[in-house]
Amino acid sequence: MVRKEKPKSEAKAFLAVRMRGSYGVRWKTERTLEQLRLLRRHHAAVFKATTAFTGMLREAGNYIAWGPAQADVLEAMLSKRGEVTGGKRLDAAYLAKNSKFKTLAELAGALAKGEASLKDVNGLKPVFRLQPPKGGRAPVKKAGERFNVIGFQGVKVNALVQRML
Description:
The protein is α+β, with helices and mostly antiparallel strands. It has six helices and seven strands, in the order βαβαβαββααββα. The protein has one domain: CATH 3.30.1390.20. The strands form two sheets. Strands 6-2-1-3-7 form a five-stranded mixed β-sheet, with helices on both faces. A two-stranded antiparallel ribbon has the order 4-5. It is globular.
């Protein structure tokens, strides 16, 4: 039996979006989604590309879309959907006051390179609540080439997130 190769990526950070709800989820997968902080549909999070996170993303692959994060998408996500405690939007003034980064572009670049995490900004919520994708999406019942909305997406996850902002 030939073993299928796992997706390889030289990314330093991954972007994951939950695409399916919680009905009928195995307990192990549900616990993994909780640890990834992807509790509801259309929630997104950014993770460093470590072996532990890669394994967790593969475990939850039937419920999420994930791939390498790009700095421009992270910057748009931080500016449009970034929240701090108290329900306020993340802006450059708050960022300069509560972290070592001066601009959102600087933070997004460091996140994409894996040099920073969202914990580096005091009070920033680690989950981004996105809208459903504009223009709809393909069915999410099956993973594979034809129904390729869930699982490892490669750079296509960035286009999906752009449609969800």
